[in-house]
C-alpha cells in the first residue's frame, strides 16, 4: 500500500484502506475505485492523506495505532462530556467533569496498555478518519501523543494518569468560544484571536473546581500555549515556570494541529510537523520532550514514498523502534528507472544514507 495526499489522487486508483468517520462507521470501503466525484468528496471532508492499492507495494502494512474499540469509546466519552459542558456555569461544568473523570482515567489506563504493548511506533495515519468536530478528535490525538512522550520519558503510573487527564481536557475551554470564530476559514482579527486565547484560562477555571482530579490537570489546560521563551499565552510564562506536563502537551498539541486538515490550512506530513518542533526546540519547546516525541512517533509512516540522498527512490516499509527518522526503505527506483527486483535498505544500519525528500506523486502506480 502507498500513502498519498488527497490532492494528488487521480480517478481510477483503488482505495487501500477503508475511510471511517470518528465513530468508526465506514464511509468508503477498501478496494473501491475512486471516481472524480469521490476524490472531490474526500477533499470536502478535509481528509489529507489516504492509502491506495499499489501492486508494487501491496505487501507493505500501514501498521496499527490504537484499537478501533478504544478509539470509538474515547472519542464518544470526550464528545458526551464536552457536549454536556456547553451553556453551563463554571460550577455546573466542574460537576460534569467530576462525573466523567473516572471514565477518563479508565480510558487512559487502557490507552497506556495498548501503547506499551504495541511494538510499532505510534502513527495516526494507519487509519484514516473524518471528524464532525475537530476538538473531540484533537483532544484524543493529543492524549495519545502526550502518553507516548510520557512513556519515553519513563514517567511513573500516577504521573501518566495526571498527564493523560491534562491532555484530554487541555482544550475544554474552547467549548465556550463561538463556533464562527473556531471554524473561521480566514485570518482571525485581533479581537477574535483574543477571544480564542481565553480558552486556556476558561479551561483552568472549569477544571480547578473538580475535586476528583489533581489541580495540576487544570494547569495543563492553563499552560499548554506557554512557550519556553515567554512568547506564549495567557501569562507569558518562561522556562521552569512552565510545568513539565505543560511542555509535553504543548509539543503534542502543536504537532497534531499542523498535521491535521483545518478550515484555514492543509495538513502537513509528520516529518514536516517534526521540522516545526525542531525549529522551536530549546526556544519554544523543551528539547528532551521533542526528542522523546521523535523516538515515540512514526515520522515517516509506512507506505510513504521517499527519495534518498543518493538519488534512489522507494517506499517506507518498516519502522525502527526508537529511531523514527531512520526507517527501513524498500527501493523501487535507481538512476531514475524502476527496478524489477526491489530490495530493502535499513537506514539505521546505513547511517550515511538520509531521506532527502518525500515523493508523493502517483505517476508510477500501475492499476
UniProtKB/TrEMBL annotation:
It holds the Pfam family HD_5. Gene3D superfamilies: Hypothetical protein af1432 (1.10.3210.10). Residues 113-309 form the HD-GYP domain. PANTHER family: CYCLIC DI-GMP PHOSPHODIESTERASE PA4108 (PTHR43155:SF2), CYCLIC DI-GMP PHOSPHODIESTERASE PA4108-RELATED (PTHR43155). This is HD-GYP domain-containing protein. It comes from Peribacillus cavernae.
Amino acid at each position: 500500500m502507498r500513502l498519498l495526499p488527497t490532492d494528488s489522487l487521480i480517478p481510477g486508483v483503488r482505495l487501500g484502506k477503508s475511510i471511517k468517520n470518528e465513530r468508526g462507521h465506514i464511509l468508503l470501503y477498501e478496494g473501491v475505485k475512486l471516481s472524480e466525484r469521490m476524490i472531490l468528496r474526500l477533499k470536502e471532508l478535509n481528509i489529507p492523506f489516504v492509502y491506495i492499492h499499489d501492486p508494487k507495494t501491496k505487501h507493505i502494512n500501514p501498521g496499527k495505532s490504537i484499537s478501533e474499540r478504544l478509539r470509538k469509546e474515547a472519542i464518544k466519552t470526550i464528545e458526551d462530556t464536552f457536549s454536556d459542558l456547553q451553556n453551563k456555569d463554571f460550577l455546573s461544568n466542574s460537576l460534569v467533569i467530576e462525573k466523567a473523570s473516572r471514565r477518563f482515567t479508565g480510558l487512559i489506563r487502557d490507552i497506556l496498555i495498548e501503547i506499551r504493548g504495541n511494538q510499532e511506533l505510534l502513527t495516526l495515519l494507519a487509519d484514516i478518519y473524518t471528524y464532525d468536530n475537530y476538538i473531540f478528535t484533537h483532544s484524543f490525538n493529543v492524549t495519545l501523543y502526550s502518553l507516548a512522550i510520557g512513556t519515553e520519558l519513563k514517567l511513573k503510573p500516577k504521573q501518566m494518569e495526571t498527564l493523560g487527564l491534562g491532555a484530554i481536557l487541555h482544550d475544554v475551554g474552547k467549548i465556550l468560544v463561538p463556533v464562527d470564530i473556531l471554524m473561521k476559514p480566514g485570518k482571525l482579527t485581533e479581537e477574535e484571536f483574543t477571544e480564542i486565547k481565553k480558552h486556556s484560562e476558561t479551561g483552568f477555571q472549569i477544571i480547578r473546581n473538580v475535586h476528583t482530579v489533581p489541580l495540576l490537570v487544570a494547569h495543563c489546560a492553563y499552560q499548554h500555549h506557554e512557550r519556553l521563551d515567554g512568547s506564549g499565552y495567557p501569562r507569558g510564562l518562561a522556562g521552569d515556570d512552565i510545568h513539565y506536563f505543560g511542555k509535553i502537551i504543548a509539543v503534542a498539541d502543536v504537532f497534531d494541529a499542523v498535521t491535521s486538515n483545518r478550515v484555514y490550512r492543509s495538513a502537513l506530513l509528520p516529518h514536516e510537523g517534526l521540522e516545526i518542533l525542531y525549529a522551536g526546540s530549546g526556544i519554544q519547546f523543551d528539547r528532551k520532550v521533542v526528542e522523546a516525541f521523535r523516538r515515540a512517533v512514526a515520522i515517516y509512516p509506512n507506505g510513504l514514498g521517499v527519495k534518498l540522498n543518493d538519488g534512489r527512490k522507494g517506499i517506507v516499509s518498516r519502522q525502527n523502534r526508537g529511531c523514527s527518522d531512520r526507517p527501513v526503505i524498500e527501493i523501487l527506483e535507481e538512476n531514475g528507472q524502476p527496478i524489477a527486483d526491489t530490495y530493502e535498505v535499513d537506514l539505521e544500519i546505513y547511517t550515511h544514507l538520509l531521506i532527502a525528500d518525500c515523493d508523493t506523486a502517483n505517476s508510477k502506480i500501475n492499476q
